[in-house]
Specification:
Helix content: 40-55%
Number of strands: 2
Shape: globular
Radius of gyration: 14 Å
Structural class: mainly alpha
Mean pLDDT: 93
Oligomer: single chain
Distance between the termini: 24 Å
């Protein structure tokens, strides 16, 4: 699936819920299914700067596609990074770099987060794209 198709799938899933309490519960469930980062990668180098809670992300490239794993010490934040990883993991670096993240606005996530969590969300997206830029330069 393309990033766009995955994003559309996420938007469809979130539209099934009537209120934000249900959406938060769904995000928590997504966080529980997150491909967890190995303990050895829970280092300061892998912490996303700009997040109030701790979020670790590890990226590796196989067959020209980036696979992300992550974890967070906060349950909502873990759900947020799970959504982003679902959209971007297993994709080519160029696709990640060029992908827009309008689906975040479509599901209403940013407007329902505290300002510090919204800033953290932006930092997570930026970090995932930075990994993609780094891996893309290795391909060239």
């Amino acid at each position: 699936m393309t990033i766009q198709e995955i994003q559309e799938e996420i938007v469809d899933e979130f539209s099934m819920f009537d209120d934000w309490m249900q959406r938060y519960e769904y995000m928590i469930e997504l966080g529980k299914s997150l491909p967890l980062i190995e303990e050895k990668y829970k280092t300061d180098d892998n912490i996303i700067k700009g997040c109030q809670s701790k979020v670790w992300v590890h990226a590796k490239m196989e067959d020209d596609k980036i696979d992300f794993t992550a974890d967070s010490d906060a349950i909502i934040t873990k759900g947020i990074i799970a959504i982003l990883i679902r959209a971007f993991s297993g994709q080519h670096p160029t696709a990640i770099i060029e992908a827009d993240t309008n689906f975040i606005d479509e599901i209403g996530l940013k407007e329902h987060l505290s300002p510090t969590r919204a800033n953290g969300l932006v930092s997570m997206i930026k970090q995932l794209k930075m990994y993609a830029i780094a891996y893309k330069t290795q391909l060239n």
